Amino acid sequence: MTDLIVNGRTHHVEADPSTPLLYVLRDDLGLVAAKFGCGLGQCGACTVLVDDQPVFSCLTPIAALPGREVTTVEGLGTEKNPGAVQKAFEIEQAAQCGYCIPGMMARAEGLLRRTNTPSEAEMRAAMSPSLCRCGTHIRILRAVRRAAAMRGGGVTDPAEPVA
Amino acid sequence: MLLVCALLFAGFLVFAHRPAIAEVSTPPRTAFAAAEIERGAALSRIGNCTSCHTAAGGRPFAGGVPIATQFGTLHGTNITPDPATGIGRWSQAAFVRAMREGVARDGSHLYPAFPYDHFSSITDADLRALYAFLMTRTPVRAEAPANRLIPPLGFRPLLAGWKLLFFRPASFAPDPQRDALWNRGAYLGEGIAHCGGCHSPRGALGDEKRDRAYAGGWAEGWYSPPLNADSPAVRAWTADRLYTYLRTGLSSTHAAAAGPMGEVARNLAQVPEADVRAIATYYASHMADARASRHEPALADRKPAAIKAQPEGAALFAGACAACHEPGAPMIVAGRPPLPLGTQFHETTPRDMIQTILHGVSPPVGAQGPYMPAFRGTLTDAQVAKIAAYLQARYGSVRWSDLDKEVAKARKEGEQ
Description:
heterodimer; A: alpha+beta; 5 helices; B: mainly alpha; globular
C-alpha cells in the first residue's frame, strides 16, 4: 500500500511499489491526461509535476513518491475554469493531434511555478525535453509566452510578442 | 620590521611585474591562410576551449562560463576578437605569451585554471594557427562577470608566487623508442588537449601533481578516472576502443561519455581522424598494464542477493531504470553497453554513478548518441543512495560507504 498525493488529494494505492506512476494515474486513478509514449523517458508525453518539478511519470516508481505532491494537468483547472496554462494553450490552438500536450502543459506549469518571467532561452530549454510529432512547437511556445503574461509576468525577451 | 615587510612586498611586486604588450589593430582575415585557420579550428576543438570560453546558450568563445574552484568562482574570458572586451587588440606575441606563460596582454597574471602549464609545449606553428582561428571569429562584445574569489586571491600579482612554486613550463621532445603516431598523441594529449587537467590529481593549491600523472582527478563535480595502470575499467582500453569512445562518445565495452567528457567527445568527433587516433594510441599505451589489459573478468550479476539486501533500491530500480538497463531491454538490444560493464561501478568513488543518475547523459555526439534522462528532479537524495546501494550489491567490485553523504555532495558539486 502506497499513499499518493495527487492534485491535493491522498489516494491509497495497492500497486507494487515499483509500478511507474503513469500506470497508477491512468489505470487506478482514472487520470488519463498523461500519456504513454515511449516508456523510456525520451518523448515527454507522460510528464507530470512532482513537487513542482517536471518528471517522466513512466520512469517514476510510486515507491519514490511518499510525502511528495504530484500534479497532473487535471489539477491545473477544469473545462469550465481552466488554469492559465490550459487557457493559453486553447487560445493559441497549440494542439494538433494533442498527444504531447498534457506533458507540454505540465512542463510549462513547472517552469512558470519556478518563475513567471523566464527568458526565451530558459523557456525553450524548459520545454525542449517534450517532443511534438505534429510540429506545433511554434504555437506551443506562443502558448507558454501567453501563459507567462496571464500569470502577471512574461518572457523577458520574447521571440515574438503575445498578440 | 614594518620597513622590512614593506621592502619585501615592494621587491615581490617588482618580481611579479610583467610588462604590457602594445595593442595592435585586429588583423584582417586576409592576414591568415585558410588552411591555417582550419588547422586552428581543429586545435581549438582538441583543446576543448569552448568548455570554459563558451557559456551555455551563449555566443561561441564569448566567455562568461562560471568555473567553480575550491578558491571561489572564476569566469572564462571572452576570447573573440572584440577590441574592447575580447582579444581583438592582442598581437600574436601577446597571445603566445598568454598561452605559454599565463600572462595577459596588459601584463596581469592569469589564473592556472587556464592550463598554460600544458599549453607551454605547443609549437609556434600551432599557436599561430590557433591565433589565426580566434582572430577570425565573430567579435562579440561581452564582459565576463567579475571573479568571486576568497581574499586576497583576487590580487593577481600573487599568482607570480604560485608560478614560482608550481609552474614548470612544459616542452615536448619526441620519444625515439616510439612511433610517430604515439609521439603525435603525446604532443597533443600533454599539450593542447591537456587531458591531465582533469585526469590527474591536484594539490591543495590547485597544482597538478605531475608525479602522479593520470592517477585520477576531478572535473565539475565528476570524477575523472585514472588513465594509467590503475584504470578501473573491466574491459581493456585498446587504442581502437579508445578511438571509438573519443570519436563517438560511446564505447560498447565501457560506457557513454558523460558529464564534462561529453563535450570532449563532441569536439573530437569534428577534428581530423588521425589526431584522435594519435591521442587514443598514446593513452591506450598508458593503460597497457591495467588489470583489464591482463585479464577481462567475467561480469557479476548478483540480482537475487541484491534484491534481498536492498529491497527498496531494487523497487526503485525496477520502476525507474529497468526499462532500459535490464538484460533484453530495447536499449541493450540496440547495442548499448550492459550496466555491469560501466566503469562507474568499478571506480574507487561512487561519484560518477551518482552523477549519471542525477544528470543523465546528453547525446555526446549527434542527436542519435546515447541518452539517459536526468533523475535529479524525480528522485530524492535518499532514493538515489538506495539505488546506488542496490547497484553496488548487484554489480559492484568496490566497497563504497556513506552513500547518503556522497549523493548530497555530488548534487551540490554538480550544480555549481
